[in-house]
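User: Assemble these into one structure.

Assistant: Restating your components, then the assembled model:
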Amino acid sequence: MTTHRPLGFSIRRIALHGLLITIGIIFMLPFIWSISTSLKPMNELFAVRPHLIPNTIRWENYSDVFENIPFLRIYINSIIVTIFRTIGQVAIASVAAFAFSQLRFPGRDVIFVALLAGLMVPDQVLIVPRFIIMREFGWFDTYQGLIIPLIFSSFGVFMIRQYFLGIPRDFHEAAKLEGANPLQIYWQIYMPLARPALAAFGFLALLASWNEFFWGLTVTSSMDMRVIPVGLALFQGQYFTNNAVLMAAANLATFPLLIVFLFFQKQLVEGVALSGLK
Amino acid sequence: MSRAELPATSTIAITSGRGRSRQARLEMRWGFLMVAPMLIGFSIFFLIALGSSLILGFTEWKMVESPHWIGFQNYRDVLRDPDFRTAMVNTFAIAIPHVILRITIGLSLAIALNSKIRFRTFYRVVFFLPVVTMPVAIGTIWKWLYDPGFGPINGFLGRVGLPQPEWLTDRWWAVVAVVIVLLWSGVGYDMIIFLAGLQAIPRDYYDAAALDGASGWQQFRDITLPLLTPTTFFLTVIGIIYSLQVFDLVYVMTRIGEVNQLPTVVYFIYDEGFRNFRMGYAISVAWVLLIIILIFTLIQFRLQKRWVNY
């Protein structure tokens, strides 16, 4: 549908592109500056006129991240915790969403509304009792403590249920006639059909989990049980005295998710837009 | 809707009442089984936690000895606590400009990208990228950008002859600094939601308006804005809820040693609970925050009748 546009129109286009490119560069500058800083030797950090491109590149800043603190261990902690929280949230929420949308049982709607009402309550109200429950369970400063309280997502139940409701019920009835039980129907029919919703929710769960700070800060105390955001917040100024190394650590914390996002950006952006909720 | 196509099920259901009740019982059992994991987690980490929280808010509890009941004393103290008041002022000083600017900028970007412009996917990714970053990490990065002596922001301001503020140590400059970071990492999200809203507006409306001779601005004012009000409403509600809970950013950006230059309400809760170990008091502050969030949400739902078109 290309038509020839009058000249005035294309000047407006160019102006719009100019504006968008300018804003885009401003948006990317923090990333660019942190990469640049992370590669600078100490003496260039405190230049009176800081340069964007370092005169000498010091890759060792990245290996220095792992020097004074067990950053590798912390990194692995974050990976483990994120994987389990994400899988847990998707599994528990989707199986419950199936029951809420497809099966009839007493109290179903009351329970569902209660879950939704729970979304209104900010976590800060619950954090102290959860912390105490963790101590009672003996889960303080453990993986269970980091993972299990955060695998129950009412939001996930809501989002996946909405999607399940949009799947024609014929699929369900037909499988039922074939003698499939609800668990089989859920796993073999509804889960594959709901892949877009599961991917969108899975990514949001992954993002929230990788970035989560407050719970990780309160439920752990030893250096070996910290996760990345907590380690990064607590150790700056104390162990990361060199700002270049600190930037390297911050980059190592953000890059994995940026890369995941860039690979799947089309689906993820659409998923976020469709879910209409974060 | 599918009943007509599947007479078999309905025949079974009607002809044998016993078979039907057996099936219903089986379905019920599966239903409970499948919601059980969620329900167990919800009971422990939400219901029990919420109940304990409600009770503990009325106690004085320093972790070492057991809690003792003091009635409404915590709540009376909270309302009189100057530190709480400071935290509250800081929180709103961040929240109000943040929500307003975030929606304005998010909408502007969405409108710019809603046209058939080239590279729109690329722009969309660029503006959305900061949304997927870790608040603690970007707080760390921006703290360095704001560095009064060696950061690029003041470096730039100095070069063009503008004043170079002490960004993170001066309370009001710190508010500006934090709002900028929140906008940088948040407008991309609003832009995406607005884009979805814009795409839902039928093209015909604009065509009809153009036939009637409506200018671009009139179309924006009389079609785009009114039809986007549900989206704007949604983003305002969650924007306020989100910005009343700012914590990670001020934790890394505005703390100097042990003192935070810009404590927010959630930072205050953390400080009282996990550093001063005044658990009962911290919980009562969290309840005050909950009530404030509820009041704001209710006011917005009340006001929506005046400006939101469904």
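Chain B touches chain A through 91 residues (CB under 8 Å).
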